[in-house]
């Protein structure tokens, strides 16, 4: 192994520890060397020492994506002193007033901007959905299971009631084969939602999301908020493309 590669790997490991689980730091020296090794990379360009809800959302997303075959990284840009990494910001036409800016890099393609930059839109869930829809890589939303997300996707595009009932039976069979209690409970939530959609039609998804989002604005315990948030994420599996 070359000395350059050893230094690069050590640098990435140290950066990963300092930035949080699943995230590495890139700079002008390492940027191209690293992203060229990955088919898909999600990069956040931000101030050198980021903080606040958007940074927390990015970190939460990175933790959820740590098992996925993608690179999650950050570039800290300084506009003072030696202006570290300002060349990268200039290269990708990023104004510091826009920070944080998130771009999805895929081999052979132009980078794609994550455009939901309001406080409400810059969430870990929306970042994950951005990765899934633009790259085709699976990253699970909190509270979701990949096998059931794929079943939900099939259920969403099923053309008739008989097809949906057949997919529902597939989901019920999968629940019965799950060994972990927590996963079985989650699988049962998917099944109940499919049953409601068979009974009430696809409009059940939007109606239920509105109901749960309204409840989330009320006074709830942290446990209840997490549970409702997970249910909303499962509902999204029936609404959004994977």
TrEMBL record:
- Would I find Transmembrane among this entry's keywords? no
InterPro entries listed in its UniProt record: ERp29, ERp29_C, ERp29_C_sf, ERp29_N, Thioredoxin-like_sf
Gene Ontology cellular component annotations, sorted alphabetically: endoplasmic reticulum lumen
Q: Which UniProt keywords apply?
A: Endoplasmic reticulum, Signal
Where is the secretion signal located? Answer: 1-20
Stored Gene3D superfamilies: Endoplasmic reticulum resident protein 29, C-terminal domain, Glutaredoxin
- Looking at the record, the residues that make up the Endoplasmic reticulum resident protein 29 C-terminal domain are 143-238
Q: Which residues form a coiled coil?
A: none
Per UniProt, residues of the ERp29 N-terminal domain are 21-142
Q: Which GO terms describe its biological process?
A: protein secretion
Q: Which PANTHER family match?
A: ENDOPLASMIC RETICULUM PROTEIN ERP29, ENDOPLASMIC RETICULUM RESIDENT PROTEIN 29
Q: What is this protein called?
A: Endoplasmic reticulum resident protein 29
Species:
Thrips palmi
Gene that specifies this protein: LOC117639229
